[in-house]
Amino acid sequence: MPEQKLTGAQIVIKALKDQGVDIIFGYPGGAVLPIYDAIFQQNDIKHILVRHEQAAVHAAEGYARSTGKVGCVLVTSGPGATNAVTGLLDALCDSIPLVCLSGQVPTHLIGNDAFQEADTTGITRPCTKHNYLVKDVNQLARTMHEAFYVARSGRPGPVLVDIPKDVQFADGTYIPPTEVKHKTYRPQVKPEIARVEEAIELIATAKRPIFYTGGGVVNAGPIAAKLLTQFVKMTGFPITSTLMGLGAFPASDPQWLGMLGMHGTYEANLAMYNCDVMINIGARFDDRVTGKLSEFAPGSKKIHVDIDPSSINKNVAVDIPIVGDAGAVLEDMIRIWKARQKRADQTALKEWWGQVEGWRARNCLNYNRTEAVIKPQYALERLREALRGKNHYVTTEVGQHQMWAAQFLPFDEPNRWMTSGGLGTMGYGLPAAIGAQLAHPDAIVVDVSGEASFLMNMQEIGTAVQYRAPVKIFILNNKYMGMVRQWQELLHGSRYSNSYSEALPDFVKLAESWGCVGLRATTVAEVDEVIEKMLAVTDRPCIIDIAVDPKENCFPMIPGGKAHNEILFGPEDSPSDATPEDGMVLV
Amino acid sequence: MEEKIEKHTIAVLVDNEPGVLARVIGLFSGRGYNIESLTVAEVNNADHLSRITLVTSGTRMVVEQIKAQLDRLVPVHKVHDLTDEGPSVERELALVKVAGTGERRIEALRLADIFKAKVVDATLTSFVFELTGTTAEVDDFVGLMAQLGLVEASRTGVVAMSKGPTGF
Ligand SMILES: Cc1ncc(C[n+]2csc(CCOP(=O)(O)OP(=O)(O)O)c2C)c(N)n1
Ligand SMILES: [Mg+2]
């Protein structure tokens, strides 16, 4: 191929095209104007103009998580880049593949405190999987391709490429992705077979086994989720998953125990506590899941499959560590299980299921059903019924509504559920919903929101209107930062310090001012009605204000620092002695 | 057993590119690991590779985490735990400035001779000694000089290499 001279800005666009990018979320500014000019002069890549750079990153996350592709972001230098930081860290915590391009002041001004200069690579170093500052236009194409490779390979994550303005103007040579091979980065995908064999032997002798799966299965792609389902069905074992892993195994299957962890189900948490063999696939023993470490599944042997070797033995020492891609490992597991003609210990398993069903019968997600006030759980149950059988995606904000959504909205497929798990970023849901909606124009996309979280990125309604993204913002309006209020009840003598949502707007009028549809339900009878109306809107965003019980709390709950068998079921479980002193310091 | 604190010398081969040291140091500060010493210099000009020698301490689980976290950095080629991988040699270089006259000056010179330190600068009232040795030897020497007019000590921190014919 003959050498082509292009400007840096053109190289950026060509690299994006060659990487299969069709949408980029961004916001212009002085230091990226050459790239914006190059965007103007082409039609292959659609630029989505957000209203705040944080939202650009969350939108790219929603796009990435609902498609399995790398999400793409473009921001200017200085404030553009710093606004993107929260989103980048969010993507790092949840292992979401992104490439974020940021403009930088011209190379000769770097370090001079120039206008809108920020040490972007310095600021984002701990918030990205990797980052680059490109000072030579001839390194730009290579760096772009490397960035995509690093973002999607191994444990995925956000990668930032900082491009000084003079580099965007300069002429340089383009090279295609095929000519770029990374010098060092080769994550291990295929597992060590001996380890998998060891795991299979242990699994086959288990008497009280459980699968504990996480976002790693979703990240490994739909095939991994299929293989997981196949293996779980072959063994007949119960399965639970983290917040991040929901949907990888069908929630409608009887082997599914629901989510585990702080607001997980009784049956999932007790099965974890009492298991003798734990098969962790793509989860990371996060503190929301383990609770008190010294009493985490005390009598169990643990298998841990993770693509990131640093996740293994970080919080919890395991017996059989397996480094590899969840899909590749599951494939080997199934093959070896079959080849060795393994069969679970049926007698033991029957007894174990008996125990598990006993816990399940406790019906821990039950709530006080009433006609007097809309319970948030009820609103979500009705939403669930309305969405059943329809092509839909759900994002959430952060708070009680997020946990209720995880408990009450079941998913039978991966990539349908998007929530900010690791960082817990209020304001994630609306831009993520827009990203998912733009990737799936014909699907129903709902952002399950709280009134406080919604305000954190509500400017993005403008984006949704501009691009006719008919996202549904389903606000469970309890007039409180409910999750904060719940912790204040549990730990701080119900002193509601600054957790009341004062001075809220009229959400219906707010919607109308943007040309959207605004709906409100204040009585139980109105809930179905507004959901039906909401689903009928297909050409513009819709804000649904559901006035829910302001006092409702999210249960079950394992207070910080407590073990899995010390679960609170509802308000009748006294909160005063719920948390030991050492648990109070935990978040 | 779990709680025992171990001291480990770790050699890391990295791409010599901007920010790589900041990544390594940021990892240690961000995750609360100890750095007792850190040295770095380019060791392969053609491929722009630098070798970082780190001395760190922690429980076995923490040391394993440190290695895994280092290995996970994109510009890192290799991570070797020299403490785990068999016998190795460790050396430090120190420059030690001592000022004084008379008996103290003579004694400083005499001790320097015993430690095989070289005089790299001399005035009528001072010496700068250059000493290479293990951390303990350098500690001892600096400790003795403290009683004989030590002005300043500058140390490189540990560089290390495995013994025998194979790499690292
Ligand atoms: C950016 C950000 N700031 C603060 C928090 C801490 N926080 C967690 S939940 C929550 C309250 C959320 O209130 P709302 O959106 O109304 O949801 P609810 O809990 O009432 O359902 C807060 C402040 C956070 N997670 N993210
Ligand atoms: Mg609220």
Automatic annotation (TrEMBL), chain A:
It is an enzyme of class 2 (transferase). Its EC number is 2.2.1.6. Pathway: Amino-acid biosynthesis; L-isoleucine biosynthesis; L-isoleucine from 2-oxobutanoate: step 1/4; Amino-acid biosynthesis; L-valine biosynthesis; L-valine from pyruvate: step 1/4. It comes from Azospirillum argentinense. InterPro entries: Acetolactate_synth_lsu (IPR012846), AHAS_TPP (IPR039368), DHS-like_NAD/FAD-binding_dom (IPR029035), THDP-binding (IPR029061), Thiamin_PyroP_enz_cen_dom (IPR012000), Thiamin_PyroP_enz_TPP-bd_dom (IPR012001), TPP_enz (IPR045229), TPP_enzyme_TPP-bd (IPR011766). Residues 398-546 form the Thiamine pyrophosphate enzyme TPP-binding domain. Residues 7-121 form the Thiamine pyrophosphate enzyme N-terminal TPP-binding domain. Belongs to the TPP enzyme family. Keywords: Amino-acid biosynthesis, Branched-chain amino acid biosynthesis, Magnesium, Metal-binding, Thiamine pyrophosphate, Transferase. This is Acetolactate synthase. It catalyses: 2 pyruvate + H(+) = (2S)-2-acetolactate + CO2. Residues 196-332 form the Thiamine pyrophosphate enzyme central domain. Pfam families: TPP_enzyme_C, TPP_enzyme_M, TPP_enzyme_N. SUPFAM superfamilies: DHS-like NAD/FAD-binding domain (SSF52467), Thiamin diphosphate-binding fold (THDP-binding) (SSF52518). One of its GO terms (biological process) is L-valine biosynthetic process.
Automatic annotation (TrEMBL), chain B:
Keywords: Amino-acid biosynthesis, Branched-chain amino acid biosynthesis, Transferase. Gene3D superfamilies: 3.30.70.260, ACT-like. Chain A, domain 2. It catalyses: 2 pyruvate + H(+) = (2S)-2-acetolactate + CO2. It holds the Pfam family ALS_ss_C. GO terms for molecular function: acetolactate synthase activity. Its EC number is 2.2.1.6. The keyword Phosphoprotein does not apply. It comes from the Bacteria. The keyword Transferase applies. InterPro entries: Acetalactate_synth_ssu (IPR004789), Acetolactate_synth/TF_NikR_C (IPR027271), Acetolactate_synth_ssu_C (IPR019455), ACT-like_dom_sf (IPR045865), ACT_dom (IPR002912), AHAS_ACT (IPR039557), AHAS_small-like_ACT (IPR054480). Pathway: Amino-acid biosynthesis; L-isoleucine biosynthesis; L-isoleucine from 2-oxobutanoate: step 1/4; Amino-acid biosynthesis; L-valine biosynthesis; L-valine from pyruvate: step 1/4. It is an enzyme of class 2 (transferase). Residues 9-84 form the ACT domain. Dimer of large and small chains. Catalyzes the conversion of 2 pyruvate molecules into acetolactate in the first common step of the biosynthetic pathway of the branched-amino acids such as leucine, isoleucine, and valine. Belongs to the acetolactate synthase small subunit family. This is Acetolactate synthase small subunit. It comes from Azospirillum formosense. The gene is ilvN.
